[in-house]
Design the sequence.
């Protein structure tokens, strides 16, 4: 089973959208059982008193426009041990990547990547919390998720026979 963790700042917009989109792609292909998919935050801002906030309503509405739902999802914080527990940690932007390295302390196994890298792009998935463009965030997330799935299904997600680690992109 390949374990993927999508990560953004608060885990109420982009990363739960990516988790939902990716899980839907897996379901439609009938391969959901081959993957474990989740999402997390690099900040505690959306986790007051240890209880995560639900997906931000405009993000949920954008998912619903595409027949998807992140109902029940609540923000959770990335933990240092997540680095060992997941095969890939996928950030949405450069600030997320810095936060991921700060929390985990390293990326020795090169498990951390920005989502749009899989689509051959170096740019970030812009944060719709600031831009208000949940439609553009969704389009970038869908593009990245489709490219990530294609990458993994071409065998690039297979574990190395020598070290049991997934290869990096």
Sequence:
């Amino acid at each position: 089973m390949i374990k993927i963790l999508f990560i953004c700042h608060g885990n109420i917009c982009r990363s739960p959208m990516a988790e939902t989109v990716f899980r839907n792609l897996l379901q439609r292909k009938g391969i959901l059982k081959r993957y474990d998919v989740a999402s997390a935050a690099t900040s505690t801002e959306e986790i007051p008193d240890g209880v995560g906030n639900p997906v931000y309503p405009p993000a949920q509405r954008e998912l619903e426009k595409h027949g998807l739902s992140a109902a029940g999802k609540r923000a959770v914080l990335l933990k240092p041990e997540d680095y060992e527990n997941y095969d890939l940690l996928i950030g949405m932007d450069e600030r997320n990547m810095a936060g991921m390295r700060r929390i985990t302390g390293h990326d020795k196994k090169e498990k951390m990547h920005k989502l749009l890298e899989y689509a051959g792009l170096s740019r970030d998935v812009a944060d719709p919390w600031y831009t208000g463009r949940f439609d553009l965030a969704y389009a970038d997330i869908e593009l990245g998720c489709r490219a990530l799935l294609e990458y993994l299904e071409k065998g690039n997600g297979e574990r190395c026979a020598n070290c049991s680690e997934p290869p990096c992109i």
Q: What stands out?
A: The longest strand covers residues 2-8. The helical segments are 14-29, 57-65, 82-85, 94-104, 128-131, 134-156. Residues 54 and 74 are 4 Å apart (CA to CA). Strands lie at 2-8, 35-41, 88-91, 112-114.
